[in-house]
Amino acid sequence: MDDWNPAAHSFWSLLDEPSRAALMAVGHVSSFPARTHLVRQHESSGHVIVLRDGCVKVYTDSETGYQAVLAIRSAGDLLGEQAGLDGRPRSASLYALTDVEALIISSARFSALTSSLPAVANAVRLVLSNRLRDADRLRTAAGAERVEARLAALLLELGELYGCPVDGGSVRIDLPLTQDDMAGLVLTSRRTVSRILEEWRSQGLVATGRQAIVVIAPVELGRCAGAMAKRPGHSSSQE
């Protein structure tokens, strides 16, 4: 367990050591290559997932074919808890953006631990509460903050979580996120994201390539993000 590196405020980071040991004892670790699904929307499966390493995209597909990206999840995050606990089909798909290692726990065993270990139950409660709060903040920001601020905050957050430093203080984000994905995460259109990124490229703030984006000027993007950069990451309760 010592080699886990959970993100701050993630499910795993909220647990005490006895609770972590109990979860490890009833689960098993599985690996998923990048660009594969951990679960698919509408499927019936009886387990919950705790990310040990890697990055996962949470999304839904509508009947018209539109794909809505709900969240990006990282090490320590709890996934699939709703369908795992209520027994209903999966409300969203989980897609590995990078190679992923995850702790898989049967729904029955996870439910039993939430009943017997207050720390586990409390961590689940806090995770769900935080996701609802973050979703509310994002919806509020969609009406009160400019898209540029929301997109800048997203890139800064992705850089902090998944980026690696490159020359001159720049940060390279190697995630296969499309402009449609980014549009879904900031509640706008792909066309708007494309326009803003083009403007930022011409201003020397970012550089984009296939499956990667480089934040060249984090300080300037921070000014653009303003108050958004100080808020928790974008989240959804639908997993």
From TrEMBL:
Example GO molecular function: DNA-binding transcription factor activity
Alphabetized Gene3D superfamilies for the sequence: Jelly Rolls, Winged helix-like DNA-binding domain superfamily/Winged helix DNA-binding domain
Any one Gene Ontology cellular component term annotated for this protein: cytosol
Presence of keyword Transcription: yes
Keywords on record: DNA-binding, Transcription, Transcription regulation
PROSITE patterns: CNMP_BINDING_3, HTH_CRP_2
Limits of the Cyclic nucleotide-binding domain: 11-113
Top-level taxonomic group: Bacteria
Ranges where the HTH crp-type domain occurs: 145-219
Name assigned to this protein: Crp/Fnr family transcriptional regulator
Protein species of origin: Streptomyces morookaense
